[in-house]
Amino acid sequence: MKRLLAAAMVAASLFLAGCASTPPDSKAIQAAAAASSSSAAPVYPSGRLTPLVPGSQEWSGHSVVTLAPPVDMWDRIRRGFKMPDLDSDLVRDREQWYATRPDYIQRMTERSSKYIFHIVEELERRGMPTELALLPYIESAFNPQAVSSARATGMWQFMPATGNDYDLKQNLFRDDRRDVVASTRAALDYLQRLYTMFGDWQLALAAYNWGEGNVGRAIARNQKAGLPTGYADLKMPDETRYYVPKLQAVKNIVANPQQFGVDLPFIANHPYFQTVELTRDLDVELAAKLADVRIEDFRALNPAAHKPVLLAASGTPILLPWDNAAVFKRNFEAYNQGQYASWTAWTVPSTMTVADAAQRAGMSEADLRAMNNIPPRMLIKSGSTLIVPRTARVKEDVAAVVAETGHLSFEPEIVTRRTVVKAGRNDSVTSIANRYKLSPARVAQWNDVAAGHRFKRGFQVVVYLPVRAAAAENVGSGAKHAVVTSKRGGGVARAAVAPVSTRAVARSTTASSKKAVTSPRGGSPSKKKR
Q1: pTM of the model as a whole
Q2: Predicted local distance difference test score (pLDDT) of residue 528
């Protein structure tokens, strides 16, 4: 027992000695050490303990870590600056540009307040420079809905192919290039890869903007010419030449806003949002209501969802303001006012018109087109997925396979003209059908003859040709004077005849097998609606 007590006293004396200006007596230490292996009495350090004084001999050589947390996000970002500074006329030009637009800076920084804590957390976790948290100011002004002329999308401006390379889902229900968490993960993965490739953050940023292949070739050209290969030394497009100077200018303003007369809004050093897992399909508007947030704020945190319904099977959580996450969970569990989702996904069983699909879905054609962004004069292909109203009979949520692979495909609606051609010598149903790439059964049906029928020379054969084909063909059996005429008989092939769809023709032919089918000028009523 005495030995344990002696050892404890030695440890305590050494700890206290590290905080005192009076060094421990070496003889006392030796005696205490001996006491740990014998029954000697414990020894206490001699002298009075005093605090260390900055500037004293005992103080030198010691570093003190501050315990005060960052005041706000700007302070936190400044503490993580690691990239070498770029000093050039382009930087000063961009500093002036930003400093003379305080309203623009105010809008950007206020918009970023929802996202920047998460980005800085991820950068610090990876040991990356916190300057990169400012990059979305350059890319998109921190707008997750931003789309460039080249189709780059989201806060970090991912192109479709690059988004696929970094596992950003782009399907019928969502585009993760807009997702706050997913796109940040992908952007930092990409930037880390580029830094590993070039060993220089400025070159990595140039590659992020211009592409690693272009930067690599620019470096190779300079190496071949015996020139330096730094960022400022490479020949590059103006957009890339200004890219790093823009980031440097924003960094300089954040580092010293007073110098530029800029007032940065306060952004708390605290998470803005929490993630909440969905257990049921849920309307976007209902989700915002249950969370007690404005629909605009909900969409700002969940910009990847571009349909009115959120699918639980997607496995993607929703983001909610920090305090509202608990509100949402409580209200979701207590909700008893009907179904959670008023929309669902329907897989089209066969290729059909928009009008037919709308009738099957129980909604108007205009609403179906608007909800699913269906262009005019298109058929919906078999296997496509449509967003349609969810009736009370539908008990199951959308399946995972549909949530992951749902797609919408179209094919052009074929518009035909009723055309009359003169049969040549030895022309038959089959020869006419082959000439115009038609079905012999259709040609026979249109002319109310048998499939093996042979036409008399000069007989006016009715065919329905695609509009382009009818305009381009010099029809006939090869006879020099063969012409295309409309039903109204007036002259040459290009006489105006109203287009009708092949489906309208098929419906008409089944109604009458006694005479050649004719179609009134202007097409069928259903066609007029479309």
Answers
A1: 0.70
A2: 30
